[in-house]
Amino acid sequence: MGRAFNFSAGPAVMPEAVLQQAAAEMLDWHGSGMSVMEMSHRGKEFISIYEQAENDLRELLAVPAHFKILFMQGGGLAENAIVPMNLSQGGAMDFVLTGSWSQKSEKEAGKYGTTRVAASAQAEGFTTLPDPATWQLGADSRYVHICSNETIHGVEFHELPDLKALGSDAPLVVDFSSHVASRSVDWSRVGLAFGGAQKNLGPAGLTLVIVREDLMGQALSHCPSAFDYKLVAENQSMYNTPPTYSIYIAGLVFQWLKKHGGIAAMEQRNIAKATLLYDFLDSSSLYVNKVAMNCRSRMNVPFFLRDESRNDAFLAGAKAANLLQLKGHKSVGGMRASIYNAMPLDGVQALVAYMREFEKTQA
């Protein structure tokens, strides 16, 4: 039957070619006599892997020279603390609440300064995005935080807000964990972006931070040294031992992305996949997606069966059809299909075919 189609929200599907290359190189990387996971992070072999990965990522995401790329640990949850420790200076921070992850970010940051809710979509069940024109941004804000793609609720910013146009000089902090490398980034609107790798870039263990140089060097005195962006940057992400194997795998993913046309080509593929699935959902009498059309995520598609007594039967049938990890997050229920870069179009086609057939059996 071949490999299953894995719709997990993260850790998530990886490009098959990357897994095959990693398997082939497992015992002996390029004649070094070592596996990458056995290498010293300061040896010339791993340094070459790291430098290639950083250069490829900078090229793929078109990261300007005045931004530093940091390879860190701790995932997005740790960055919810590390960002305010580096940028808040104990002052006020504005948060736009669009789902579970931005809520977590706001709660954690409150340990390091004063958090304010500039806007919230909670009253709408996190099925839409607050219009930036309505955001209440403080003149003294150290930064404004958004989660540009909410993995659980399935809402996505299709354009980053222009804070200057809103009258704010604060830097924009973006949690782009679940859609990094799926679309281009307007870096002129960003001060810092971070994301865990385990959705679109590679395996769990690696956290990406891309930070404007002028925002470094103001960490709180009690910020751990290993989390001080300035120290991490000055030491080429090797102030402490980095997640070496995760960096290696992410580097292979970056090469795979380049081979397949880069971010622009990937975005077109993602639009095609998302359109196929949403069009089917909108035409169905059994399934429903509740997210406003103008902010539906291309990466994470939550949906519900109108008759939820059929949920277990739906999931059992999906598993039998080699369609895995479709159960929705426990906080919202229903179903969720995560269709990241590495999910091929035929995976979404197989899902839609199964959903159509299942619907017929319920008539």
Outline of the structure:
With 363 residues, the protein is α/β, with parallel strands linked by helices. It contains nine helices and 14 strands.
What does this molecule look like?
It is a single chain. The chain is an alpha/beta fold. It folds into two domains: 17-259, Aspartate Aminotransferase, domain 2; 262-361, Alpha-Beta Complex (Aspartate Aminotransferase, domain 1), CATH 3.90.1150.10. It is 33% helix and 17% strand. The chain contains nine helices and 14 strands. The chain has a seven-stranded mixed β-sheet with strand order 2-10-9-8-5-3-4. Strand 3, helix 4 (100-109) and strand 4 form a beta-alpha-beta unit. Helix 2 (44-61) packs across helix 6 (244-259). It is globular. The model has no long low-confidence stretch (mean pLDDT 96).
Q: Helix proportion of residues, in percent?
A: 25-40%
Count of separate structural domains: 2
Task: State the assembly state of the protein chains.
Answer: single chain
Total beta strands: 14
What number is the mean pLDDT?
A: 96
Helices and strands, with pairings:
Layout: E1 5-6, H1 16-24, H2 44-61, E2 67-72, H3 75-87, E3 92-97, H4 100-109, E4 114-120, E5 141-147, E6 149-150, E7 155-156, E8 172-175, E9 192-196, E10 207-212, H5 229-234, H6 244-259, H7 262-283, E11 287-288, E12 300-305, H8 311-320, E13 323-324, E14 335-338, H9 345-361
Parallel strand pairs: 1-13, 3-4, 3-5, 5-8, 8-9
Antiparallel strand pairs: 2-10, 6-7, 9-10, 11-12, 12-14
